[in-house]
Amino acid sequence: MAVPVDAAPRGIDLGDPAFWLLPEEARGAAFARLRERRGPVGFTDRATGRRCWALVRHADVAAASRSPEVYLSGPGVAAPEPARWVRAVFGDSMLELDDPRHAELRRVVGRAFTPGLLAAVERDVERTAAELVDRLERERPTDFVPAVAAELPYRVVCSMLGLPDEQRRRILARTGPDGFGMPGQGLRALVSTRLAVAALGRERRRRPTGDLVSALVTADADGRRLGLRELGAFCSLLLATGAEATRDALAHGLHLLTVHPEQRALLLGDPDAHLDGAVEEIVRYATPVDRFHRTVAVDHRLSGIRLAAGDRVVLCYGSANRDEAVFRDPDAFDITRSPNPHLGFGGGGPHFCPGARLARRQVRALLRELFARLPEARSTAAPVTVPSPVGHRVRSLPFAF
Question: Is 181 a domain residue?
């Protein structure tokens, strides 16, 4: 009997949760075989019995990302659909919304990021990066993640929001090594974050300052502002997705520049020429946010394959970023790669990462500061990773200098 064109090769079962826990090398080899199918790859989710499709090619991920009327976000975009009580208590983040509500919230958030606020945030990024390298020289820690990679984006986001120092310390203490959004300690940290942000939002409505929360809870020219639950959902998104993706990019970046000494030499030899390229290649190669989910809204054909309304789709950004049809020698780490049309911040469309500029700025600032002052900084072992429903999350990275 002929093998259906949408079937995965023998030995690859995307519906088995164990597949997503395979070592990165094994999954990478599997995705390379799947990309040979030249279209969506069908599978059945063992947990739900639902028909699903993996989009593993760059063109398919980009096409789906740019067709939000066909590929809906909705609850469960980053993981299995949350329980009703979770949505009732926490609300939905922009990540889980479709138009028109998504467009409305994104407009409010976009207007809050004024040129003055963005300039202040970028100054804070540079200052915080310098402070963290100062602390490295004094304290000489041995784990790069808690000392630098987690600390930089967390401090930058909290400062941007205007969270007082005491609340920052309380939330960070409850986060745990695996970050926000993970079972147990991470969920408690999210609860603490929502409570702190709601209290801050009420205060800023009465007495606004120049921070982001003030801008979000103060009505704009059209009279729209974020409600306190919307505010909590947005701020949690900044911490649970934005800050953690930056953390993982920083950790993977240091390790990649350690195990590829020729690329490290290029960067240290001329940082001005290569820093931007290094940031883009780190995001492409590591793809900290590896996959998101969508739901097909209407019967539809993609690359010749029929997808039915109600089917689930997995946007496999990591596989798209190794697509041989787009990237020459895709498994090579090359900071001079140009062009580099990676999908590390999404495939375009309305859900393209709104924090991409800030993430790039942080990785760039930290690498510049670190290697200018501690040029021998390097990882001493591979990153210790933790299973995640969306990406390549790093728990720790031993390092020395």
Answer: yes
Q: Which domain holds residue 112?
A: 98-286+349-400
Domain of 107: which CATH number? 1.10.630.10
Claim to verify: residue 355 and residue 379 sit in the same structural domain: yes
Per-residue model confidence as pLDDT tens for the chain (401 residues):
333 446 677 789 999 988 988 888 999 999 999 999 889 999 998 888 889 999 999 999 999 999 999 999 987 787 666 667 667 667 778 888 999 999 999 998 888 888 999 999 999 999 999 999 999 999 999 999 999 999 999 999 999 999 888 877 777 776 666 665 454 555 666 777 788 888 899 999 999 998 999 999 987 757 788 888 889 888 888 887 888 999 999 999 999 999 999 999 999 999 999 999 999 999 999 999 999 999 999 999 999 999 999 999 999 999 999 999 999 999 999 999 999 999 999 999 999 998 999 999 999 999 999 999 999 999 999 999 988 878 888 999 999 99
Same domain, yes or no: 26 and 130: no
Cα–Cα distance between 74 and 67 in angstroms, integer? 14
Instruction: Say how far apart CA 33 and CA 10 lie, in whole Å.
Output: 10
Same domain, 130 and 240: yes
Q: Say if residue 151 is in the same domain as residue 246.
A: yes
Instruction: Name the domain count of the chain.
Output: 2
Q: Do 268 and 239 belong together in one domain? A: yes
